[in-house]
């Protein structure tokens, strides 16, 4: 996994065993382990007071403590850290007791190998994460706070406020999965969340990422509700996610995983129920596999169960580039309001996947100079301008931007701070925070990604006069053309690319105008204005439908 570092405290008195364990950790392929080793309990406990660790590997028999007493003393010092016991004592009763008392695993030194050890650690960390963060993620908190802020401005009925604060339906699945070249079976976690079922079927992408959790998916589902409502589409918000790093998986693995995940959530999805689409880490091929798996189950082809699928399977022309195109339509509208000429603008784009690469492409077509782009491997900066064609060709050949020759290498953090006219984060959430907001130096911030800006950062940027095009408006082109695809699918009637782009342009620019006018008339920031627009329509629909029974 890229950037996946785990800090481990190893408490082990036998120097030969300690070296062996360090070596096994060093051989791990999916993880980088930073190991600190201590050879007695007292020094181990002292380390816990000095540094932050992700996990403890603990031998039970130490010169200054024996058996479970060792475990109890470490647990008392670090009650929130996962502890994996690594011992020479092959004693089933002791092992059962240790696990009962909260040890994440009890491993025998004589039987471990590198893959086993890495897997145990990974599961221990994942369990901890499930315990601590499933709902309680910073992203869900952000989505709820943004909602509450807008609700406050609009004096939203408290009954509605409480209903909208949590999703209506959530499904969490854990399913077995075998990698191509591994004998063992992994347990993979997946989610599907439907935030509001009032507006019609629910709609939202599926994300494959190693950090996905229920809170993140719930936040994304809530944003989808406001986004669909702001665009006046007949959908409530939904989202799905699978907690894997797709960059590590082969095509065959991704296909098997997608089909199994689809089978697990099949009761929730359907062309009239809930319609998935691509998000980070998934693409039109993923949608084709979902469509095929669903169709196999029901016994006939159902293209309208997903959107963002290949055109040959009933996908819409223009869907692939729709999110990036929509972002640029919004930038054009904002530039007009600010009397900025895009021909003379410089632009920085974070993330060079589906959304980011199309933003760069369409901005360049509008005459803007793309001076920096980045992906998960690196950032590339060239004040004279980067050729988007060359970047696309390079990524087509090498998958990532790393070592792209025509520019200076910079970090993702540096990239966000490059002075420019237009900054478009189009990768991950939580990128512009209280830590760097002061140093963001752009006129327009166009949020291609979902949730890239925290509330505190929002305030700083608004004070600095940055024109923010919030995610639920800026990146709504994807779901809008997904809606067109769904309509085409259910009617078996295909539209031309020109029709699609014209309708997209009309819907996005109208939503931009409504948001902008509300922000002016009610003296609120653009994000709050867009959220109020979204909430208002959902509220009206909820009041019309009433409460059952
Ligand atoms: P993608 O998987 O196609 O691309 C993601 C890009 O981000 C890749 O270039 C990846 O290398 C890069 N990246 C990953 N980690 C990074 C890091 N730490 N720093 C910098 N770059 C990093 O995903 P996408 O579909 O382009 O989605 C990107 C964002 O846009 C997500 O927030 C997603 O929710 C949002 N979004 C996507 C769509 C859509 O239609 N695909 C629609 C609306 C919103």
Descriptive labels:
549 residues, alpha/beta, five-stranded parallel beta sheet, 19 helices, 17 strands, 45% helix, 17% strand, globular, binds nicotinamide-adenine-dinucleotide
Can you offer a commentary on this structure?
- By secondary structure, the protein is an alpha/beta fold.
- Helices cover 45% and strands 17% of the residues.
- It has 19 helices and 17 strands.
- The chain has helices at residues 15-26, 41-50, 67-77, 92-100, 114-133, 138-153, 158-164, 214-230, 251-264, 284-298, 322-337, 354-365, 388-398, 412-416, 455-464, 471-474, 477-491, 497-521, 526-545, and strands spanning 5-11, 32-38, 55-58, 83-87, 105-108, 169-178, 185-194, 202-208, 236-242, 274-278, 346-350, 369-374, 379-381, 408-410, 422-425, 444-446, 467-469.
- The strands form three sheets. It has a seven-stranded mixed sheet with strand order 14-13-12-11-15-16-17, sandwiched between helices.
- Strand 1 (5-11), helix 1 (15-26) and strand 2 form a beta-alpha-beta unit.
- The longest helix is centred in the C-terminal third of the chain and has 25 residues, at 497-521.
- 46% of the residues are buried.
- The mean pLDDT is 94.
- The structure holds nicotinamide-adenine-dinucleotide.
């Amino acid at each position: 996994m890229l950037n996946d570092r785990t800090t481990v405290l190893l408490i082990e008195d036998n120097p030969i065993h300690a070296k062996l364990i360090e070596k096994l950790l060093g051989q791990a392929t999916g993880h980088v382990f930073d190991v600190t080793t201590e050879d007695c309990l007292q020094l181990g406990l002292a380390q816990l007071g000095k540094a932050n660790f992700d996990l403890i590997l603990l031998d039970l028999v130490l010169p200054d403590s024996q058996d479970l007493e060792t475990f109890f003393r470490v647990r008392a010092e670090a009650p929130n850290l996962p502890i994996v016991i690594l011992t020479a004592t092959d004693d089933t009763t002791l092992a059962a007791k240790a696990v009962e008392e909260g040890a994440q695993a009890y491993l025998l030194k004589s039987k471990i190998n590198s893959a086993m050890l890495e897997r145990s650690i990974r599961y221990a960390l994942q369990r901890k994460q499930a315990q601590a963060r499933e709902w309680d993620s910073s992203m869900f908190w952000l989505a709820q706070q943004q909602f509450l802020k807008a609700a406050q401005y609009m004096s939203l009925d408290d009954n509605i406020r409480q209903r909208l604060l949590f999703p209506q339906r959530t499904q969490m699945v854990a399913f077995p999965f075998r990698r191509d070249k591994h004998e063992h079976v992994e347990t993979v976690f997946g989610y599907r969340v439907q935030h509001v079922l009032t507006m019609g079927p629910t709609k939202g992408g599926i994300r494959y990422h190693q950090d996905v959790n229920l809170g993140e998916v719930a936040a994304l589902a809530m944003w989808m509700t406001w986004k669909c409502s702001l665009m006046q589409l007949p959908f409530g918000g939904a989202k799905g996610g699978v907690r894997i790093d797709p960059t590590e998986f082969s095509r065959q693995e991704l296909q098997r995983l997608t089909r199994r995940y689809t089978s697990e959530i099949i009761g929730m999805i359907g062309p009239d129920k809930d319609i998935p689409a691509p998000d980070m880490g998934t693409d039109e091929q993923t949608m084709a596999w979902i469509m095929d798996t669903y169709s196999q189950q029901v016994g006939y082809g159902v293209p309208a169960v997903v959107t963002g699928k290949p055109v040959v399977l009933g996908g819409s022309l223009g869907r692939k580039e729709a999110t990036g195109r929509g972002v640029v339509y919004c930038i054009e509208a904002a530039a007009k309001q600010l009397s900025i000429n895009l021909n003379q603008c410089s632009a920085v784009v974070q993330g060079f996947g589906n959304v980011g690469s199309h933003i760069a492409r369409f901005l360049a077509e509008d005459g803007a100079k793309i001076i920096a782009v980045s992906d998960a491997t690196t950032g590339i900066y060239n004040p004279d301008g980067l050729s988007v064609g060359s970047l696309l060709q390079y990524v087509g050949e090498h998958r990532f931007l790393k070592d792209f020759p025509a520019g200076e290498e910079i970090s993702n953090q540096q990239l966000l701070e490059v002075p420019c006219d237009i900054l478009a984060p189009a990768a991950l959430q939580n990128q512009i925070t209280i830590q760097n907001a002061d140093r963001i130096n752009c006129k327009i911030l166009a949020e291609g990604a979902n949730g890239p800006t925290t509330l505190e950062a929002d305030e700083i940027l608004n004070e600095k006069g940055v024109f923010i095009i919030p995610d639920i408006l800026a990146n709504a082109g994807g779901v809008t053309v997904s809606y067109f695809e769904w309509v085409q699918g259910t009617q078996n009637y295909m539209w031309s690319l020109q029709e699609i782009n014209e309708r997209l342009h009309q819907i996005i620019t109208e939503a931009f105008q409504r948001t902008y006018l509300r922000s002016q008339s009610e003296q609120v920031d653009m994000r709050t204005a867009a959220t109020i627009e979204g909430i208002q329509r959902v509220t009206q629909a909820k009041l019309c439908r009433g409460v059952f029974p």
